[in-house]
Amino acid sequence: MISRIHEIIRTQDVLVLATTNTTTPLCSLMAYAYDTSITHIFMATPPSRKWKNLIHSSPKASLLVDTRTTVPPTERNAIEAVTIEATLLDQNPEHIQWGRQSLMERFPANHEFLNDESTRVLCFRLESYFYVTNQQDSVFIEL
Fold first, then answer.
1. Which one, of 13, 102, 25, 110, lies nearest residue 65 by Cα?
2. For the domain with range 2-142, which CATH number is right: 3.40.50.150, 2.30.30.60, 3.30.70.2570, 2.30.110.10?
3. Domain coordinates of the chain in residue numbers?
4. In the list 33, 44, 85, 96, which could disulfide-bond 128, CB 3.0-4.6 Å?
């Protein structure tokens, strides 16, 4: 099961980041990269992103990666989805540099944005997976 989840994470390149504080939930579509062991996910954000303030008040986040873009409309019951519980880590320079480089390799068109000094690279530690397939079969895996 873990190998299938990792395959989904490797083959997709956009996820939904969901955050909240005590009053305001927010979702954002984000490009992402991951480390070799798929224990961390990296995203980049300009300093003006509204949700950035939310996530620093509550570092827990939900990340949704799914296969909806690769499944024809007539086969929607074949969509697989992984909801990942994750925690934003403090700005460790090694993680940030590794994440920035991984994002540049994965998204070469974003090179200018990723090299901008004001762009923040966020590093999330993955804590659990909730995998759903066939619209009803599910498995929870704590990492």
1. 13
2. 2.30.110.10
3. 2-142
4. 85
